[in-house]
Records
---
Amino acid sequence: MPTRRIFFTQLALDARIGILEHELRATQPLHIDAEFDVDVTQEVHDQNISTVLDYRLLRNAIVDECTRAHVNLLETLTERVVDRILAEFAQVQFARIRISKPLAFSDCAAVGIEVQRSR
C-alpha cells in the first residue's frame, strides 16, 4: 500500500521534564522532530481535508502529551508520545519521534531521545 510521510521539524514548546532540582521547579524548552508514515487509502481532494490525515491533529496530540504533566525522563515522554499517536491514529503505520533538550548542556546544540515504531 502506498504511504505518505507527514513530518514536523523542531516543534518548540515548554514542558515540565527532568529529575534535577531546577527542572522540578520550572518548565524548559523542548524541540520535537517527528515523522509519520500514513497509509494512502483514497485520492486527495483539494477541497476536502477529510481525504487526508490532518496534521494539525497530530501536532495537537504531541503538544498535549508533552505538556500535560511533569515527566522525569525524556525516554518516558518519547515513549508516551509514540504510544499515543499509534493508539489515536489508525492510519499511522510508522512513527519516529525525537525529543531534545536544547539547554541541557552548554557545549552542544541539544541532547535527546529518539524512538521509532511501526505496526
---
Amino acid sequence: MTSSSAASYPFVYLASQSPRRQELLQQLGVRFELLLPRPDEDAEALEAELPGERAHHYVMRVCVAKAQAARARLVAGGHAGAPILVADTTVTIDDAILGKPAGADDAVAMLTRLAGRDHEVLTAVAVVTADGTLLPAVLSTSRVRFAAVGADALRRYAATGEPLGKAGAYGVQGRAAEFIEHIEGSYSGIMGLPLFETAALLRAARIDF
C-alpha cells in the first residue's frame, strides 16, 4: 500500500490514441501525456481473441496486457516516472465480441446485428503506479438498446466513416446517438473511459486533479 506521505504526481501517462479518452480525462481535470506504441510494437496482436474467450475475460486480459506493454515502453524509453492509465472497450451481443470493423461493409454488418436489440459495452481500466505496480483492473458494464434501424440508415451512417476504429462500429457521442433508445450504466464507460472508476484508480495512484 502507498503511505499517506508518498509523493503525488501532476500528470498521468495515457496509453491510448482515443480522442474520446483524452476528452474524458480533460473533463476530470486530469493532466496527461500520451505514451503510444512504438512503430516496432505489434499493438494489434494484443487485441487478438483467444478461442472460446468470453467478452468480459477478453477485455480485462487485453487491458492488463496493454498496461504491461505500456510500462515496458516507459522504462525502455527513459521517460519520467509517473503512473500509466490504460483502457480497453468491447461490445458484446449473443456472447460474441464485436471489435473494430474492418471497413464500411463490416460496420454495416455489425450495426445490423445490433439494430432493434440490447447489447453490452464493456470497458476495462487499469493503472500502473509510478513504481511499476499494476493496480487491480476494474470493469464497467453498460447495456445499450438500439432502435430497429433500417438498412439504408445504417449504410448512410457507415459511409460517414464514424464507425471505423470504434468497437461495435459506433460512437455513442456521435451520430449513432439517433439510433440509441436506452442506456443503462455508464455513459462515459460506453465512450471508452468510465469516469467514476477511473477517478478512483487515479487517486489510488496519487494523481493530483
---
Amino acid sequence: MTTTYGEGDDFPEFEMETPDGGTVTKADLSGKKAVIFFYPKDNTPGCTTEAKDFSALKAAFDKADVSLLGVSKDSAKKHQNFIAKHDLTVDLATDAADGGLSNELGVWTEKQMYGKTYMGMVRSTFLIGGDGQILRVWPKVKVKGHAEEVLEAATKV
C-alpha cells in the first residue's frame, strides 16, 4: 500500500469532529509541526497500544512543539470512551464515515482477513511541517517502537 500523498506534498485541507463536539482543521495545526496518525479502531489491542504510546510521549512532543492527532472513523462518543478508559492525552478526531481525509490520503482501502474483503484503515502516520507540507510518511505502521521513532524524526526535521 502506498499513500496518495508523500513527502514534499501539501497535506490536504480537512475538517474533522473532535470528541468534545468541536472540530479540528488543517489551519488549527498550522505554524508548528504535527503528527497525524491513522488507526483502525478504538479499543482494539494494537490501536490501544499505539494511542497509549503516543500519550506517554505527549510531553516530549509538546516540548518539541509538535502537535499530535489520532484519527479513525470511530464516532466522537466512542473516542470519548476510548480516552476515558485508557487515560489518553493525545487529541483524537473522527474522519467522515463516507469519504473523508483517510480516503483522500489512500489509507482507507480494501483489506482482507480470513478470506473476506472489507474496507478498513491502514495504520499510517504523517509528519507535517508548520507550512502544511508533508515531511515524512510511515505507511503500514508496526506499533512496537513507532511513537518513539516518530518523536525522533519530528525532533530532527
---
Amino acid sequence: MPAPLRKILHVDMDAFYASVEQRDDPALRGKPVVVAWRGARSVVCAASYEARRYGIRSAMPALRAERLCPQAIFVAPDFARYRAVSRQVREIFARHTDLIEPLSLDEAYLDVTVTKSGLPTATATAQAIRAAIREETGLTASAGVAPNKFLAKIASDWRKPDGLYVIPPARVEAFLTPLPVGRLPGVGKVMERRLAALGIATVGDLRGYALAALEQRFGRWGRRLHELARGIDEHPVQPERPTVQVSAEDTFERDLRLDELEPHIRRLAEKTWAAAAREPARIARTVVLKLKTADFHVLTRSLTPPLRPASARQLADIACALRERVDRPADTLYRLVGVGLSGFVDRDAWAAQEDLFDAAR
C-alpha cells in the first residue's frame, strides 16, 4: 500500500521582529520601523511593511536604510523577547503535530499528514494555527499548504502578509508552469543567468528540458532541477535536531588588532556560556574562536582541551589563548570576532566516560 501523500505547512510570521515591536509599543504602529542598531557596520534585522514600501529589506546596511527612509524609526533588537514569542508560536504548532522543523525564530515547516488535533484537512489546520497565533500573541502569520516543503514555502509567500495559500496536488503543475525559475530553491542569480542562456526563463521552460540534457550541463544539480520543475521534493520535515554549536559574535565599529580583542572575547564568552546553559542535558567540549579580517577573510581556530571549560571565565581564557594560533602579521586588522562552543555530547554519557577514565587511573 503506497504511503499517504504528505500534507506540509510552511508558517511564516509577518515582519516578525518589527511586528513584535509595533505590538508592544502602540506609538510605532503604522510607522516605518527598522529593527537594527545604528552605526556604519549595522545591518537591518527586520523592517515593518510600512518601511518595506521604501525598499528597506532584511540584511541591508542600516546606513542605506536610513538614506532610503530618513523618517524611519530605528529600534534596537531584543532577541530575548523575540525568542519568548517564538516559543509561544511553537507551542501552538505542537498542539497539532510533533513533526516541526524550525528554520528560524519566525518560520517553520510542519508535517500535518496526521494531526493530534483531528482537524479534517491541512487547510483547516493552517487556519486554526493562524487564528491561535493572532489570538494568543497579537501577531499575524502567513501560511502555505502543499504536498511538499518547497511548494509550501513558495505558497506561504503568495498572499503575505496575513495570508493563506493552498496548492492542492492536482494544481501543482499549473501553479509552477508560469513561475520564474528564480523562485525555485537553490536557483540564485548566477544559475538564473545560466538557465537564461539556454532560453529557460520559467519553470515551464525548464520542464521542457530532458533529464539527460540537464545532468550533462549541471551534473547532480541537473537532476534536482528536473525534479523541482515537476513539483517533486521528497525531503521530509525534520524535527529539531540536537544543537551542534552555540556561539556569539560581534562586528566592531572600527577594525581592531588581535591584541585589542580580549575584552570583546570575554563579553562574547559570557553570552555563549549562557546560551550553552540552555542545553542542560548536553555539554560542549570544544572551544571555537572566529575572526574576520578587514578584507573579509574568515579564520577559525578551535581546541578540545583535556578538561572541558567549566565556566564562562575558562571559556574566555581558552578563546583568548587561541589568538596565539593566528599566524597573521601583528598589524592585521579585524572587523569581527566570535566565540563558540561545539562538540556537544550527552551529559550522562560524558559522566560515564569520565568514570571509566577515573577507574583506569
